[in-house]
Design goal:
Blueprint: E1 2-7, E2 25-30, E3 36-40, H1 50-60, E4 65-67, H2 73-81, E5 85-87, H3 94-102, H4 145-175
Parallel strand pairs: 1-4, 4-5
Antiparallel strand pairs: 1-2, 2-3
């Protein structure tokens, strides 16, 4: 099975990047053989829609599971619609995160874990080798039906707003 782990560099010993859409690298790992390929995230410096672009790249690469620290609502929507499983709360190295997923220590995420554009402004910061991994952020788990309805309604509103921004930008680019 093809797993994608967000990473700060392109190998199994790289630290997990806690961001999905603006991670530095995607390390795509064969869960059975641990063979991997790394690809730089071309969406890292996108002015908007980085999560959507990154998610589409993973779908196009046939990834079955995305493993990251967090996932935003737009990327979550694209990945989940395409049937890609999402596991958040990952930390440590790519290899450790892969092993955590394989052993069931990282469960599937049922909703985004951060707001849209949460990774903006962070993509320029490079982690220092001496930095310790941060504790994983727990996925958002609805406690009640009403809370889940509110979360999903908020997500739908954010997606509608983001779609309108993308459409406006497309029109600007066509005109100019």
């Amino acid at each position: 099975m093809k797993l994608c782990v967000t990473a700060t560099a392109g190998d199994l010993n790289a630290q997990v990047d806690p961001r999905f859409g603006r991670c530095q690298y995607f390390v795509i790992v064969d869960s059975e053989t641990m063979a991997f390929e790394a690809m730089a995230n071309e969406a890292i410096a996108a002015p908007g829609g980085a999560g959507i672009q990154a998610a589409q790249t993973m779908v196009n690469n046939g990834v079955a599971v995305v493993i990251s620290g967090n996932i935003g609502p737009n990327a979550f929507q694209v990945l989940s619609t395409a049937g890609v499983k999402i596991a958040t709360g990952a930390y440590g190295t790519v290899q450790e995160a892969t092993e955590m997923y394989k052993s069931g220590k990282l469960g599937e995420t049922i909703a985004s874990t951060v707001d849209a554009h949460a990774g903006m402004g962070l993509y320029m910061q490079q982690p220092m080798p001496s930095q310790q991994p941060q504790a994983p952020q727990a996925p958002i788990t609805p406690r009640a039906k009403e809370e889940e309805i509110e979360q999903l309604s908020n997500m739908a509103n954010r997606l509608e707003n983001d779609l309108e921004e993308v459409k406006k930008r497309i029109e600007e680019l066509k005109r100019g």
